[in-house]
Amino acid sequence: MSDGDVLAVAEHRRGELRDVSLELVTAGAALADTAGGDLHVAVVGGDVDAYASKLAVEGVDAVHTVTVGDEFNHDVSVAAVSTLVEDLAPTHLLLPHSVDGMDYAPALSEALDRPIVTDAVSVDVEDSALVVNREMYGSKVETVVTVDDGPFAVTVRPGEFALASGSSDADVVAHDFDVNLDALGSTVEGYEAVEAGDVDITEAEFLISIGRGIDEEENLELIEDLAEVTGGTISASRPIVDNGWLAKGRQVGQSGKTVTPNVYLAIGISGAVQHVAGIKNADMIIAINTDPNAPIFDIADYGIVGDLFNVVPALIEQFD
Ligand code: FAD
After folding, report:
1. Are residues 66 and 180 in the same domain?
2. Coil, helix or strand for 108?
3. pLDDT digits (tens, 9 = 90+) for 52-88
4. Peptide bond into 96 cis (omega under 30)
5. How far apart are CA 283 and CA 117, in angstroms?
6. Ligand 1 proximal residues by C-beta, below 6 Å
7. What is the DSSP secondary-structure string of 190-251?
8. CA 271 to ligand 1 centroid distance, Å
C-alpha cells in the first residue's frame, strides 16, 4: 500500500452487511482522496464473497476478505484485523463506532500500538495531519482532535455519513487466516437476539416516535394503530423506555440509538438535546406537540401544535 491509503473495516450481523459498512466507505473514500491514497475495505467472517460484492461500490479500490467463523468474535476480529493492518500498512484505519466496533477497537489499538480516536463524526486530512471531529452533550460541544504523527485508528459514529453506492471494479483479495481458534481465548457458541421480535430502529425509513406526552402506557395502543395503518416503526424518547413501556432498543438519542429515517414523526416529545442528538440526520422531522414553544419545533420541518389525542386519531382515519 502507499502513503495515504485507508483501510475501512466492514461489519455484518446475522448474514446481513450493516449500513455502517457503506457509511465507512463514504468516509474512507473522501479521506483517501484528500490523503492521496487508495481505499481498501476489509470484511472478516461470514459469507465474505457475498459481502465483498456488496462492498465493491464506487470509491473502493480493493476488498480484502478473511474467511473465519460466522458471527462476530472479539478475539477473531482483533487477530484478523491486526494481521491485515500489518500486511497492508494503511495510513488510516476506520472502524465502526458500533456495539461490535466498540468491543474490539480498543483492543486492536492496543495490539497494534496505534493511538485510537473514538466516535468520530467527521474525518479529514489537513497538511498531512488527520483531523477528527467528535461531539458531546448531544452535539452542544464539539472537540477537534488533530493527530499529525499517525498511524492511528478512528471509530466512526453510525448514521453520520451517506451510504456509498454505485459499483467499482475493486480487486477482491482473499487472505488466509491461519489461526488456532481454540487458543484465542473465546469461542462464539451461538447468537441470542435480545427481545426476540423487536426491530432495528436504525434501519427504519419511517419512525413514529412517542414521548412523555402519551401520558399512560395503555395509550400506546393509539400509536400502534397509527403504525399499523402507515407502516411506520415505533421508537421513543427515554422516559418511555425508562418506564418499561417499550424496549431499550427503541430508544432514540444520546444514550439510545442514532436514527436516519426518511421521516421522523415526533409525537409528544419536547426535543431535549439528548433526544435531538439521535435524529439530526433524519431527512424530515415532523412534530406534534401541544406546546408551541417546545424545542422540537426548532428543528422540525413541519409541525402541528395540537393535542396528540386529537391529531393521531385524525391521522389514523386519513391513512386507514
Ligand atoms: P418531556 O420533555 O416531558 O416532553 C413531553 C412533551 O410532550 C412536552 O413537550 C409536552 O408539551 C408534550 N405533550 C404533553 N401532552 C401532550 C399531548 N397530549 N399532545 C401532544 N404533546 C403533548 N432522552 C432521550 O429521549 N433519549 C436519550 O437517549 C436520552 N439520553 C439522555 C442522557 C443523559 C445523560 C441525560 C441526562 C438525559 C437523557 N435523556 C434522553 C433525557 C432527556 O434529557 C429528556 O428528559 C427526554 O428526552 C424527555 O423526553 P420527552 O420529550 O418524551 O418528555
Report:
1. yes
2. helix
3. 999 999 999 999 999 988 889 999 999 999 999 999 9
4. no
5. 28
6. 211-213, 237-239, 251-256, 268-270, 272, 274-275, 288-291, 294, 307-309
7. ----SSTT---GGG-SEEEEE-GGG-SGGGHHHHHHHHHHHT-EEEE-HHHHHTTSS-GGGB
8. 6
Which residues make Cβ contacts (< 8 Å) with residue 62, sequence separation at least 6? Answer: 38, 40, 41, 170, 171, 172, 173
22 and 130 assigned to the same domain: yes
What percentage of the chain reaches a pLDDT higher than 90? 77
For residue 208, the domain's CATH number is 3.40.50.1220
Cα–Cα distance between 50 and 315 in angstroms, integer? 42
* Domain annotation covers residue 195: no
Q: 150-161: per-residue pLDDT in tens?
A: 668 999 998 889
- Give the mutation target among 255, 276, 305 for probing the ligand 1 site: most ligand atoms within 8 A of CB: 255
Q: Which residue segment(s) compose the domain that 314 sits in?
A: 201-319
